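Working notes for the structural subgroup meeting. M.R. asked for a predicted model of this chain before we commit to crystallization trials. I am recording the input and output together here so anyone reviewing the notebook later can reproduce the run.

Input as submitted:
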Amino acid sequence: MKTRHVTLSPQASLSLRLFAGLIEEGRLRKGWTREELAERVGVGVVTIRQVAKGSPGVAIGTYFEAAALVGVSLFTDDPGTLKREHATQLERLTLLPKRARRRQQEPIDDDF
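Returned structure, recorded in token form:
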């Protein structure tokens, strides 16, 4: 399988490393090995090692599942609040255009 290289902005990269660190800290606080976390998440140990490094090639769902299992808060821990926030977000989406259109650029006036 070919590995994709994903380039992140410095802010996104640092945020991902912070998230990975929180997951690793949660795993250690629970006293779980990487093998145990991998089994609970449903992925291989190599993937959990990549999560611990903050690899951008790992699926975000894998990060979220690992975080939820080790107790890292995702937005909020209350399922009711999550449902309400999701419903509100869907309402906001309905008010926006269905698709974004590229703005036409004015022709460059390079006639000096």
